[in-house]
Structure formats: structure tokens, C-alpha cells
Design brief:
Blueprint: H1 2-28, H2 39-50, H3 55-65, E1 74-82, E2 85-93, H4 96-110, E3 113-114, E4 121-130, H5 142-152, E5 156-159, E6 164-169, H6 174-183, E7 187-197, H7 207-222, E8 226-231
Antiparallel strand pairs: 1-2, 1-3, 2-8, 4-6, 4-7, 5-6
Organism: Wallemia hederae
Pfam family, one: Transcrip_reg
Protein name: Transcriptional regulatory protein
Length: about 240
């Protein structure tokens, strides 16, 4: 019974985090509530639907993020280091003081600390494409995706996994590139604004640091206030 309770709690946390993601997307988009004009909102809505977040909750989250809504909460962004690994933690909170304390506490327990590391990152658009297997792979191969992404204005194309490819874009071109690739029949798993390593290369980390970083990110992402956790590592 305890396991079921924990699973339910985890699902509730994910749904709550998804709702906050929607509110944050609307707010950061200047109150734009049309997914066609707000790439971050479109991605947040897709995530919410995949988690079966009720329609009423989604609509309430959009209203909270709308520029005309009184209680929108506050956006807080933290820079931190865990050893040589840089982190940027984006939060949406109604209580900044409490959020500060909890983020600092989690960092301290993991052996990290608040530190200016923004220079390690660049704000970019990131489109993630899932390449098909089988017969369709001939039509939508990595080489073809690379060509189509560059033609659409992509800055870099990175083969992340067997079938997953990341296209890095300028923030202002995120939506247009995502739409262009969808129009060509590619399957997008997500597209959003993110902090990526400014050097273009991710920091390689050993097993001990990897374990600490994984645990820290898991804990931060379970926080109701945490919206996104970015790292410059190879994790």
C-alpha cells in the first residue's frame, strides 16, 4: 500500500509541475496563450496531455500565467556548481524566500553551492526529433534531417541517441524550425527554450559525480517550485 501511495504522490507532483510549466510558459511568452505563437507553451501542453492532466487544470494554469491574472507567482533562476558541473535551476514560486532556502538546502546536501556560472551556458532553442526505424528510416535518415534542419535555420545538429537527434536554434527561430520539420513529416518529441553549454561541448563526469548529480536533479525536479534544471555535463 505504501508503494501505491508513493506512486500516486509522484504522479501528483509531476502533474503539478506540468501545470506550473504551463503558467511559466505563458508568463515568459508575454501572456501569449496561443501554442502556435508560443513554442514553450506548445511543448508544456503536450507534456501535460501525456500525463493526463485534466483539461480544467490546464485551463487554470493558462489563466494563472496570463498577464491579466493577478496571482502569477514569481520566477526565480539560480546558478550553482556541483564540483566543476554548472547548473541553472528555473523555478516558478509563490514564495521566493522558501524557494531559496529549499534549493540551497538540496545543493548543500549534495555537496554543491550557489555560484555564478551563467557564462558556462547559452540560451537556445532545442528541438528533439525521434528518427524512425525500418523502412521509414530511409526517408527520414540522420543525413536528411541534418540537411533539412540546416536549411530551416538550425545552428547545430547533434545525434544524442540511436533514434534521438537535437537541433540547436536561436531562440527566435525555435517555433519556425519546429514547424518546418513537422511539415516535412518528422516526429518531434519536444521543442523548448533551454540553457545549453556555451562551449558547444558537454563536460564529461566520472561515476561518483554522475551519481550525486543524478540524485540532485531528481530531488530538484520533485520540488513543486522547480520548473527546469539545466546542466552542462554529459549526464
Amino acid at each position: 500500500m505504501a508503494l501505491v501511495g508513493r506512486c500516486g504522490s509522484k504522479e501528483a507532483l509531476l502533474a503539478d509541475s506540468s501545470a506550473q510549466d504551463i503558467s511559466s510558459a505563458v508568463k515568459s511568452g508575454g501572456g501569449a496563450t496561443d501554442p502556435a505563437l508560443n513554442a514553450r507553451l506548445a511543448n508544456a501542453l503536450a507534456k501535460a496531455r501525456s500525463l493526463s492532466v485534466p483539461k480544467d487544470n490546464i485551463e487554470a494554469a493558462i489563466r494563472r500565467g496570463d498577464a491579466g491574472t493577478v496571482d502569477r507567482g514569481h520566477t526565480a533562476t539560480y546558478e550553482a556548481l556541483l564540483g566543476d558541473v554548472g547548473l541553472i535551476i528555473e523555478c516558478q514560486t509563490a514564495n521566493v524566500t522558501r524557494c531559496n532556502q529549499r534549493v540551497k538546502s538540496h545543493l548543500h546536501k549534495a555537496g554543491g553551492h550557489m555560484a555564478a556560472c551563467g557564462y558556462l551556458f547559452a540560451r537556445k532553442g532545442v528541438v528533439v526529433v525521434e528518427l524512425p526505424s525500418g523502412v521509414d528510416a530511409q526517408t527520414h535518415s540522420f543525413d536528411k534531417l541534418f540537411e533539412d534542419a540546416v536549411d530551416a535555420g538550425g545552428e547545430d545538429v547533434v545525434h544524442k541517441d540511436v533514434n534521438l537527434v537535437e537541433i540547436i536554434t536561436e531562440p527566435t527561430q525555435l517555433t519556425s524550425i519546429a514547424n518546418a520539420l513537422q511539415d516535412k513529416g518528422y516526429s518531434l518529441t519536444s521543442y523548448d527554450l533551454a540553457y545549453v553549454p556555451s562551449s558547444g561541448e558537454r563536460l564529461e563526469i566520472d561515476g561518483e559525480v554522475r551519481e550525486k548529480l543524478t540524485q540532485l536533479i531528481d530531488i530538484l525536479e520533485e520540488e513543486a517550485d522547480a520548473v527546469h534544471v539545466h546542466t552542462n555535463s554529459s549526464l
